[in-house]
Amino acid sequence: MVSVLVLYGTGEGQTATVAGRIGDALEERGYEVSTLEVTELPAEFDVGEFDAALVGASIHFGTHQSSVVDFARSNRAALNAMPTAFFQVSLSSATEDGRAQAAGYFEAFADETGWHPDRIGFFGGALRYSKYGFLKRLMMKQIATRTISDVPPADDSGDVEFTDWDEVEAFAADVAAFVEGRLGVAPGTAAE
């Protein structure tokens, strides 16, 4: 059975939700998936024990979580030796105009870490107003008003989600196809 690590860093939880959806999609294809938050890794953790790895991070004020950057930097040799993917969750990725900015964040991440994933996914994030303090809520509302012209409706808590779940599913399928090709596993037979 092909073992896949889905590792993530998250601020208010949207990246965790995206990681969970990716993990579920890979499990449906027959993979053995470990979905873990980077700050909760055991001391003896070895990424080399997996056949493939996906790492995700969110963008907050122009930067990724330092824990994800540190993980990628310290594990770059192992990551560069196996099939890998990186996914980034941000408000920049929610609009066509912001995609170039989102790509710039990834380029800075790759330069800083020395890790060059085989697949990259950019997903719109969420505005978790219910989890923000007063100042952050005010600032995020101003940023959203300036940068996003078509804001989806808020949920019951007042939060707004920009994630395109079809894109997330397509990314998981693309990564699975790549892993299957790289490891020589027939499509849909990862459990055999």
How would you characterize the overall build of this protein?
The chain has 192 residues and is α/β, with parallel strands linked by helices. The protein folds into 2 domains: 3-125 and 163-183, 3-Layer(aba) Sandwich (Rossmann fold); 128-161, no CATH class. The chain has 6 helices and 8 strands. Strands 1, 2, 3, 4, 5 and 6 form a 6-stranded mixed sheet that branches. Strands 7-8 form a two-stranded antiparallel sheet. α1 crosses α6 (165-183). The longest helix is centred in the last third of the chain and has 19 residues, at 165-183. The termini are close together. The relative contact order is 0.18. The model has no long low-confidence stretch (mean pLDDT 86). Residues 4-170 form the Flavodoxin-like domain. This is Menaquinone-dependent protoporphyrinogen oxidase. GO terms for molecular function: electron transfer activity; FMN binding; menaquinone-dependent protoporphyrinogen oxidase activity.
Provide key terms for this protein:
192 residues, Flavodoxin_CS, single chain, alpha/beta, two-stranded antiparallel sheet, menaquinone-dependent protoporphyrinogen oxidase activity, Menaquinone-dependent protoporphyrinogen oxidase, FMN binding, Rossmann fold, 8 strands
What would a concise description of this structure say?
With 192 residues, the protein is α/β, with parallel strands linked by helices. The chain folds into 2 domains: 3-125 and 163-183, Rossmann fold (3-Layer(aba) Sandwich), CATH 3.40.50.360; 128-161, no CATH class.
